[in-house]
């Protein structure tokens, strides 16, 4: 486990030492890095709103599994407004002129909580 923190006065040397005694690594952000913490906080907010609000976590192993599942979905299937509603990790699809309902496959993720749709190749 790792805790990232900025350089404000809340994380004292004693705080860091206590974490290290508990085998928790710490990573202090560089002096001028305003976007790093914001991006991390935004991802945490997204996972809380879209995922953890609907689940109960039963321990660290279960939490790790949930985070891996959501991260895979987040990076490969979920559209992002900052990427013009495209996926961050994607293959460029072939162009489709007309899509019929029978040609759409519904894929359930994370126990059916989230669904994505895929074109079935002819």
Automatic annotation (TrEMBL):
SUPFAM superfamilies for the chain: Ribonuclease H-like
Domain Integrase catalytic, chain residue ranges per copy: 1-96
Top-level taxon of the source organism: Bacteria
Example GO biological process: DNA integration
Gene3D superfamilies membership: Ribonuclease H-like superfamily/Ribonuclease H
Gene Ontology terms, MF aspect: nucleic acid binding
InterPro entries, alphabetized: Integrase_cat-core, RNaseH-like_sf, RNaseH_sf
Identification of the protein by name: Integrase catalytic domain-containing protein
Species, as recorded: Gimesia aquarii
């Amino acid at each position: 486990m790792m805790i990232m923190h900025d350089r404000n006065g809340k994380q004292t040397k004693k705080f860091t030492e206590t974490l290290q005694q508990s085998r928790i690594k710490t990573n202090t952000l560089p002096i001028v890095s305003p976007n790093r913490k914001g991006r991390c906080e935004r991802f945490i907010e997204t996972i809380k709103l879209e995922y953890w609000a609907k689940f109960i976590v039963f321990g660290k192993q279960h939490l790790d599994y949930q985070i891996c599942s959501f991260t895979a979905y987040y990076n490969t299937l979920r559209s992002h407004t900052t990427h013009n509603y495209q996926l961050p990790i994607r293959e460029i699809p072939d162009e489709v002129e007309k899509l019929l309902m029978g040609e759409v496959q519904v894929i359930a993720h994370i126990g059916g909580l989230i669904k994505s749709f895929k074109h079935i190749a002819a």
